[in-house]
Each structure stands twice: as structure tokens, then as C-alpha cells.
Amino acid sequence: MRIEESTKKNLAGRTIPSPLGKLWLVANDDALLVAEFFGQKYERPFDLPEHTKRHAVLDLAEREFELYFAGKLKIVTTPLGGIGTPFQKKVWRGLVKIPFGETRSYLELAKSVAIDPAAVRAVGMANARNPIAIFVPCHRVIAASGALSGYAGGVDKKKWLLAHESKQRPLVV
After folding, report:
1. What is the pTM of this model?
2. Helix H segments across 28-154?
3. Domains of the chain, earliest start first
4. Residue pLDDT, tens place only, 39-69
5. Is the distance from CB of 33 to CB of 27 less than 8 angstroms?
6. Cβ distance 125 to 109 under 8 Å?
7. Which phi and psi (to 5°) does residue 23 adopt?
8. Is 93 a catalytic site residue?
């Protein structure tokens, strides 16, 4: 991913623990730009030092991830600003509208964001390129058959997240 030099100057990164492995967070002064699992598919390389000082966006995101994994957060207030194309951003805005604990098919997602249902594969690709795991809940999108298909962090993580949100006992990964 190409990041403009002027944007890089405002970026801060932090690694946080989760029950599913380490998450790498990247934010600027205004919004969280990346939340991804280490080693996931489509990993976005950012050569940033670990930001350990106070940072309003990173601090809020870290706290909200802690609450999410503790089962105490259903609505995210961290400002989100993933870097992507206008089409991708349209799909991602649709993802954040999927209620906690619910799922949608790729076709339902396409229809909900007023994209031609024939473009369902493009919607799937935009979903796969979501840079903000969990807070932009691409894990809530499943195949029309109900099968769990791809997840950049791995299908095992997708299963865990869906079980966690449905208040079922989380699966051991």
C-alpha cells in the first residue's frame, strides 16, 4: 500500500494483545486507520516505531478492543478512517451497519449499500481488503449458504468472533 509521505508523518502504531493473537493498530491524529492481526492475508506494511506515549485515538481503540474481547462493548466509538478506494469505503460503511451478533451474506451486503447484485464478487474483494478488523466487522459477512468463507485473519478467527458476538462459548483456536 502506498502512503503519502505527508500522511506518514502523522501516523502512530501500537501492538496490543487479544485472545486471537497480537493486533497491530495504526492511527493518525483523527482516526484509526488499521487494526489487523499479525501475519494476516493482505497485511499492510507500516514501518513505524511502537508508540507507547499517550495518543488519543490509539488509547481509545486499545480500550475498546479490551472491552470488546471482555464481552462489554457492542458499539464502537473510536473514529475510523481506513485507507481505500471510494468503492471499498462504500462497502466498509455498509459493514459497520451490520448489528453486533448478526450476519449478512455478500449479496445482502451489496444490496444494502446500493451496489448492483451482479457485483457481489467486487463486494467480497472490498470486504477482504478491509483494513480495520473487528471494528469494521467484515467477519459478520458469510456465504449465502451460511458457510464461513474467507477472512483475512483466518477462518478460525472468524468463527471465534462470531461465537463471541452471539454469546456462545468462544471456540478454542
Report:
1. 0.85
2. 56-69, 86-95, 106-112, 120-128
3. 5-69 (3.30.160), 86-165 (1.10.10.10)
4. 766 555 566 667 778 999 999 999 999 999 9
5. yes
6. no
7. -115, 140
8. no
